């Protein structure tokens, strides 16, 4: 017979059953964004996804507090930092949401847009919301004790190649294609490695760098700090390596970060970004990518592909689901 202490422990911490409920929310957001793919309206796509995700999160039995929210990033009126979601019954959790990681990708019909939720025990996610950008480095487990964000990229690439038993020329590095990364990209190529330039969606880039079957060996560069915390929840389950350094845009943002208790000169290790291993990461493909297939309409059904990562067990699950079109899309969207 389960003791009251055991029962309380199960109740106070998110368990594996919550993952299936979270998948319903990312599936809903991805499906609702489907009519907007390639239509050039990223705000329309994002609004549809936010509405759908929030509605489904409201049915989940947990006490969720949004630590990484949509409102901070995209000036959305819902799923903002500090918002409480769920029924209020069940485990107390920190939650990071991105109804569409890659709104520009969705609007343009490009690859690698995802709908994402990450969950961890209450009080374990770093709240980096006062500093928008973070410099990150992500690899699979091979990078642990081998690479370090404080070292030059060429040195890291040579060390990683040696640890993997590869030539540097065989390495592929994911980097956001931004003006701020011109020198970084040049340095990667000068070292002999190849680049995989991303127009958006660095959550997928980080996860691909940590997956053993991926063609990406490393993900580096400055992206959103919200995406960094979200990615960290996934890296926990993948057993990968990650470091981050906050990158304030100016002195005013640095001051806001320091006032909130952040250290903009610190190298945040994976366990600093998300403490403990009781993490969940759930994503559903919006558009096709290396990680997941996007939403597909096939006659009377809509097919989604999702991934569920659990830090505690190191489990990776893929879920393919078929949904009746008539239950989801208006006549104008079919």
Automatic annotation (TrEMBL):
Pfam families xrefs: FBPase_glpX (PF03320)
Protein name in the entry: Fructose-1,6-bisphosphatase
Keywords for the protein's UniProt record, in alphabetical order: Carbohydrate metabolism, Hydrolase, Manganese, Metal-binding
Gene3D superfamilies: 3.40.190.90, Fructose-1,6-Bisphosphatase, subunit A, domain 1 (3.30.540.10)
Catalyzed reactions per annotation: beta-D-fructose 1,6-bisphosphate + H2O = beta-D-fructose 6-phosphate + phosphate
Residues annotated as transmembrane: none
CDD domains: FBPase_glpX
Keyword Metal-binding recorded: yes
InterPro entries xrefs: FBPase_class-2/SBPase
Organism: Agromyces salentinus
PANTHER family on file: FRUCTOSE-1,6-BISPHOSPHATASE 1 CLASS 2-RELATED, FRUCTOSE-1,6-BISPHOSPHATASE CLASS 2
Family of this protein: Belongs to the FBPase class 2 family.
Record keyword Transmembrane helix present: no
Record pathway: Carbohydrate biosynthesis; gluconeogenesis
